[in-house]
Amino acid sequence: MEDVSFEKIIWSVAGGKGGTGKSIITANLGIGLSIMGFRVILIDGDLGGPNLHNYLNIKKPKHTLNDFISNKISNLNEIILDTPLENLKIISGGTELLGVANLPYMKKEKILRHINNLDADIIIMDLGSGTSYNTLDFFNLSNKGIIISNPEPNAKYDAYYFLKNAIFRKISKNLKKDSDVKNIMNKFLKDNMSVIEISKFMNYLKSESKISSEIVENFLYSYKPKLIMNKIRKKNQILEGDWFVNIVKNFLIIDMDYVGYMKFDNRVVYSSEKIVPFIFKYPECAPTKNIFQIIDKLRSYNSKQLRKPFEYFKKEIKKYSKYWSM
Ligand SMILES: Nc1ncnc2c1ncn2[C@@H]1O[C@H](COP(=O)(O)OP(=O)(O)O)[C@@H](O)[C@H]1O
Ligand SMILES: [Mg+2]
Predict the structure, then answer these.
(1) Ligand lying nearest the CA atom of residue 150
(2) What is the rounded CA–CA span in Å between residue 27 and residue 175?
(3) What is the pLDDT of residues 86-130, one digit of tens each?
(4) Ligand 1 in reach of 23 Cβ (< 6 A)
């Protein structure tokens, strides 16, 4: 296999609202990246309702992340499961474990440390819906977050709300030692319980402490999560992603990178009912091309691998689809 020089990256996938397509996109992105030559590990970080393994047709996972969380297994490598594709592995999520709903922060840091040591080119962590501390922290602790939203107003609202909470959480965790910022932030949040704009907090911080505001500004500058718009039904809905990026820039003062969209297609629903990845079942459907376009964009950030055309991708899909019973 050709040498694909790649800096190890950990992407975490969140979105706020349930059902936006986080798990199905994680699974198909993972498959797509692995057939393009990358060694991929997918992790089900949805501790409340893990279902990533379903999208990969793994019926009863032998080991799950719970075995590691509960210290039953001390090495994360031991709970990695094979999939029908050699380059693609998965760490499955376990069913509800008492006390898992709010893991101690140090435990989450430990999980991320172990994830960082896994032997893979790309690690993608699928996260649950909502804004629990677990989800916010896993999102913030990975090197890059990917937000998956839909054009419908509720989905965009939840995605915005998720990002706002993630940023406040990141500020409070990262700058804990900087007690100035922490005190100013606590005072601000006490008086502005329902604030939905980071820009308001930044104005306040600037007026209280210029140095602290510069520290936070620098951090916000490097935050840069990515955005994928899913379930696009009309062409003009593609622009909803640009609109969202603008809103986030103005009110949360962070740059988002709109890395692509995926069209709505009933064949995606049908293939998930059949427990077959849609890129294998329907290589000709628009979402398969969309997955390729997203991979092409994501790849360009970290890889020295040469660009490949869509025709190559489809050829690889055909080659590997024999490993799946459809
Ligand atoms: N582009 C799409 N077109 C049609 N259905 C989709 C699309 N993306 C996701 N779905 C469907 O939406 C449902 C939720 O997807 P899922 O990935 O499980 O969401 P999440 O993990 O965000 O809760 C699934 O039934 C899936 O088949
Ligand atoms: Mg999911």
Answers:
(1) 1
(2) 34
(3) 999 999 987 666 667 788 999 999 999 999 999 999 999 999 999
(4) yes
- What is the position in ligand 1's atom list of the atom closest to the CA of 267? 4
Encode 58-67: b = buried (16+ Cβ within 10 Å), e = exposed. Answer: beebebbbbb
At 269, the amino acid letter reads V
What global pTM score does this model have? Answer: 0.94
Is the CB–ligand 1 distance for residue 303 below 6 Å?
Answer: no
Q: Is the CB of 24 within 6 Å of ligand 1?
A: yes
- Alpha-carbon distance of 220 to 210, in angstroms, equals 15
Q: All domains of the chain, ordered by start, with CATH?
A: 9-160+224-323 (3.40.50.300)
Residues with CB under 5 Å of ion ligand 2 are: 22-23
Type of residue at 112:
L
Q: Name the one residue in this structure whose structure tokens are 């990178």.
A: 257
Instruction: Report the nearest-CA residue for atom 3 of ligand 1.
Output: 264
How does strand 88-91 pair with strand 81-82? Answer: antiparallel
The two three-digit tokens of residue 318, written as one number: 């055909």
Q: How far apart are CA 22 and CA 228, in angstroms?
A: 10
The pLDDT tens digits of the residues spanning 197-245 come to 999 999 998 998 888 888 889 889 989 999 999 999 999 999 999 999 9
Residue nearest to atom 14 of ligand 1 (CA): 19
The tally of CA atoms less than 13 A away on the side-chain side of residue 184 is 21
Neighbouring CB atoms inside 10 A of 275's CB total 16
Nearest CA to ligand 1 atom 15: 21
Ligand 1 lined by 225 (C-beta under 6 Å): no
From the CA of 281, the nearest ligand is 1
- Distance, CA 152 to ligand 2 centroid (Å)? 18
Contact indicator for 257, 144 with CB cutoff of 8 Å: no
